[in-house]
Amino acid sequence: MIKIAMVEDDLELADVLTQYLKQYNIEVTNYEEPFLALSSLKFNKYDLIILDLTLPGMDGLDVCKLIVKDYNIPIIISSARSDITDKVTALQLGADDYLPKPYDPRELEVRIKTILRRFNSNHEDTNSTQEKVKLFNLDIEKREITKNGEYLKLTAAEYEVLSLMLKREGFIISREEIFDNADLLNSDFESSGSLAVIINRIRHKIEDNPKEPKYLHTIRGMGYKFTNE
């Protein structure tokens, strides 16, 4: 059974989600108070956390920061806050997904299982006899990206796009999601095709052969996918 800790002060929503997910063998324990949730993590093992941002006593972004600092557990942000800054900050802090309210519980169930498949796969790799070392590494505080330990010289726009790729490693990212999460990109970039130009510049800086990319792939009709191996 999948065990989830939910931090949600809307008790009616928490009950609806709890009952819905139960039919998919997902057990949810909800905490209305963020301090209770943080205390529970010290004594209970959960597979994933669903975290609201507007909480009594502590902002959800601060809760996210504390969880990422002390625990290796995936986090889905579930929030009615529509400010793009909140979404960007949550993902930069280490949240694995951001699901804006209102949403269909079926989407939450699918996202939970998708994230856990990826997380468990990565966890198995790190526990193997020979641990894989990531080729690319992102340092959010320094706003730096390295390849094989060497600093990549990136423009601000290139950094925004490539850092998003690294955070979404293994997932297909649509053009729309890139524009939603990259503050330096706007509709003018989209209409002029400059995103493709930025992607091409990034490939020239990270690929051995930009015409046959091994890391930053174009998925026709869907977007882009980054592999870090």
From TrEMBL:
<dbReference type="InterPro" id="IPR016032">
    <property type="entry name" value="Sig_transdc_resp-reg_C-effctor"/>
</dbReference>
<dbReference type="InterPro" id="IPR036388">
    <property type="entry name" value="WH-like_DNA-bd_sf"/>
</dbReference>
<keyword id="KW-0804">Transcription</keyword>
<dbReference type="GO" id="GO:0005829">
    <property type="term" value="C:cytosol"/>
</dbReference>
<dbReference type="GO" id="GO:0000156">
    <property type="term" value="F:phosphorelay response regulator activity"/>
</dbReference>
<dbReference type="InterPro" id="IPR001867">
    <property type="entry name" value="OmpR/PhoB-type_DNA-bd"/>
</dbReference>
<feature type="domain" description="Response regulatory">
    <location>
        <begin position="3"/>
        <end position="116"/>
    </location>
</feature>
<keyword id="KW-0238">DNA-binding</keyword>
<protein>
    <submittedName>
        <fullName>Response regulator transcription factor</fullName>
    </submittedName>
</protein>
<keyword id="KW-0902">Two-component regulatory system</keyword>
<dbReference type="GO" id="GO:0006355">
    <property type="term" value="P:regulation of DNA-templated transcription"/>
</dbReference>
<keyword id="KW-0597">Phosphoprotein</keyword>
<feature type="domain" description="OmpR/PhoB-type">
    <location>
        <begin position="124"/>
        <end position="228"/>
    </location>
</feature>
<dbReference type="InterPro" id="IPR039420">
    <property type="entry name" value="WalR-like"/>
</dbReference>
<feature type="modified residue" description="4-aspartylphosphate">
    <location>
        <position position="52"/>
    </location>
</feature>
<dbReference type="GO" id="GO:0000976">
    <property type="term" value="F:transcription cis-regulatory region binding"/>
</dbReference>
<dbReference type="Pfam" id="PF00072">
    <property type="entry name" value="Response_reg"/>
</dbReference>
<dbReference type="InterPro" id="IPR001789">
    <property type="entry name" value="Sig_transdc_resp-reg_receiver"/>
</dbReference>
<feature type="DNA-binding region" description="OmpR/PhoB-type">
    <location>
        <begin position="124"/>
        <end position="228"/>
    </location>
</feature>
<dbReference type="Pfam" id="PF00486">
    <property type="entry name" value="Trans_reg_C"/>
</dbReference>
<dbReference type="InterPro" id="IPR011006">
    <property type="entry name" value="CheY-like_superfamily"/>
</dbReference>
<keyword id="KW-0805">Transcription regulation</keyword>
<dbReference type="GO" id="GO:0032993">
    <property type="term" value="C:protein-DNA complex"/>
</dbReference>
